[in-house]
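Example record

One chain of 139 residues, shown exactly as stored in the release files.
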Amino acid sequence: MATSTKPYLVRALYEWMLDNNLTPFVALDTNVPGVKVPVQYIKDGQIVLNISPTATQDLSLTNQNLSFCASFSGLSHNIEAPMHAVTMIYAKETGQGMAFDISVEEQDEGDNGGSTTGTNKLSAEAKPLAKKPILKVVK
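Predicted structure tokens for this chain:
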């Protein structure tokens, strides 16, 4: 089976945002096994994180995982998540980015497929999510 396109798209959009002086944010589904984030910042089963170089240390975006160290209310936390837990990457300033479906196959088999859905164009064949991500714009 082919590898997922998600980690490649996440890395590409991250680089594009940095090149354009935008702040990259990711949303994670915290119900996915292996997600390690400060629980007090989880809302409705998800967490939105700033992954810009000024907000993180030792950011790693591999095909399997996203990990970094960040400060929350002055306390340092190690953040870890399987790449298939990423539900969205977007620029804080413009909202441009991409949302991803977490398919049943990704949840069962790890990061070996998974469909993606662009924010500007929804696929008619996209599988419905068990629980849709909720994103709130904070200004």
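Notes: Confidence is low (pLDDT under 50) at residues 108-131.
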